[in-house]
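Lay summary

Proteins are chains of building blocks that fold into shapes. Our project writes down both the chain and a compact code for its shape. Here are two examples, one after the other.
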Amino acid sequence: MLKSGLCCIRTQNVVYPVLPDEDEETTVEPSTEAPTEAPTEAPSPCLDGWTLLIRDPNSRCIMVIINPNTTPTDADALCTSANAEAVPSGVYSTEEYSIISALTKVANNGNDALLILGAMRTSLCEGEEITATCTQLTSFTWTDGTPGIAGFAAENWAENRPNNGGKIQDYLIVNTATNTIDDVEAARELDGVVCGMPAM
């Protein structure tokens, strides 16, 4: 603060006093104005090691876990071992398959993999091959609550799939080399699982 009626100039929160005439007696007190703090970065909605998938309305965090010889019936326990809230993940859109493929290469030393997804054959289509009722869009449902059927769109399936070979292929996997999905049986040994949980 400046006495004797002096004014001051403010530039970017720095106060510069206007110097008085040499014969005028003044007292300059130190400024008590707190410096402007830098903006803090928002916390990540996912834990370390998990990747955010932006979804409307509820985004998810996913992780690719590579664990050779994993069967579809092992998938739940494998996800829970990573986080108590994690379950095998559904796929919301075609674009998410590309994200899963990229994460797989990171987790698997640059290699692709056959990974279990969070899906089951619907009760209506158990024991059924492709029919007018059991189509690519209706044969499976996401077990983690992923909304919609875009992940089951025709372009996402391997050729002539799902075929329910032996009428026991009630689980779903993704081949990250081709970003295509396929139906498999419970005993099929695979490379790992895609796990997901709610974003914070």
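And here is the second example, written the same way.
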Amino acid sequence: MSSHDANVSTGARVALGTLVTGLADLVFAMGFWWVSHQVPPLRILQSIGAGWLGEASFAGGARSAALGAVSHFAIILLFILAYRQAARYSVLLRTRPNSAGAIYGLCLYLLMNFVVLPLSAAGMASFKDLAWVISSIVMHAVIGVLCAHYALAGRPPAGKRASSAAGMPTNSA
């Protein structure tokens, strides 16, 4: 870690992770739906806003798209913070961010599609487009890895004792 990296706050790293991860996900979704079905990018954001507004989101123009964008980045922030919190108690999450992050992302896919969406105004996700389902599952694994790396940013390298990190619990068992 360079001396410049040491001066970057945890909050700034998490904010950057939220921006990078959220944009990666949006570019993926917008690109997929534009290329495969000519769905305009604004409609992708409106579909996120549909979690709050239901079908009315698609008639809401830029306002419902803005609601979707804010909601999307808030969800990504929560994903990163949840991984960061869980990593305080799990050596595996701290030492294996790629594999643990990929599994985390797959769990996020299941959570979003089988819990959050059915409880939202958007309703249950459709699984009719197999290309979307498969690529979305893969992208969620990538999102999980990004969340893991940004959640752990600023923490000591995995080889250091957990007790040397501020606020990290010790594993003396």
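What can we say about the second shape? Residues 9-157 form one domain.
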